[in-house]
Amino acid sequence: MNLKKQRGMTLLEIIIVLGIIGTIAAGVVILAQRAYDSKAMTDLTTNINTIRTAMKDAYGSTGIYPLPAGTATAALNDQTITEDAGRATPIGKLIALGKLSTDEAKNNISNDFISAGAGDISANGVQKGYFIEINGLNRQQCRNILLQAGNSFDYVEVTDNAPAGAYHYNNTSVDLAGTLTGVTAAVPGADAAHPGTPALLTGSGIFRSLAANGNTQITADGVITACNDDSSNSVVLGSR
């Protein structure tokens, strides 16, 4: 009888230990995934800023930015980006000019090369601006890009038809002075009892632009309802 009890306790202890190990392992996996996601977002934000600098460096002095080639850009791979197909796209031209490396030109979330192109800065269609489109984002990734990069650009738009392998803008310039959509304007604070509220962004839309009253301040509270519950979000960032 004592032997049976001893064996029973030993088996119970093993089960408990295995349960603890499983719980710890699950926690480690979650933390590792969060660390990976955080690094991916940091790397992508770095690439956005690098491409922004490259666009200004290559085209800023003339103000003649190339039209986008979204479909062609989405079809590029690590080999064709440095061939004629790549050089026919704005991002491939930046690589050919030595302004970017192939790694810096890539969206490490969708695994596509990043699409870029000309932006109109007035109703007359003067293409003296540019934009960058980041595709294949889920809702949380989309919100993080808005928060990390949005306020440093003149134009910010979210679309919901650009999964990995596709772009919203193909071969037309973006109107950087477009009318805001999907934005509930901020309410200024009146006093300590009425501190005001930030601008609220909802779903897809033009959240920031060169239009009158288009200089939306993007905040953490404001992006909570931004973007869409799928992986077809793209964030379009433009500047003069």
From TrEMBL:
Report the PROSITE patterns cross-referenced here.
PROKAR_NTER_METHYL
Subcellular location, principal: membrane
Q: Which residues cross the membrane?
A: 12-32
- Locations listed in the record: Membrane
Per UniProt, which keywords does this protein have?
Membrane, Transmembrane, Transmembrane helix
The residues the entry assigns to the signal sequence are none
Record-linked InterPro entries: N_methyl_site, Pilin-like, TcpA
Cellular component terms (Gene Ontology): extracellular organelle; membrane; pilus
- Pfam families (UniProt xref): N_methyl, TcpA
Q: How does it sit in the membrane?
A: Single-pass membrane protein
Q: What is this protein called?
A: Type IV pilus major pilin
Which species is this UniProt entry from? Salmonella enterica subsp. diarizonae serovar 48:i:z
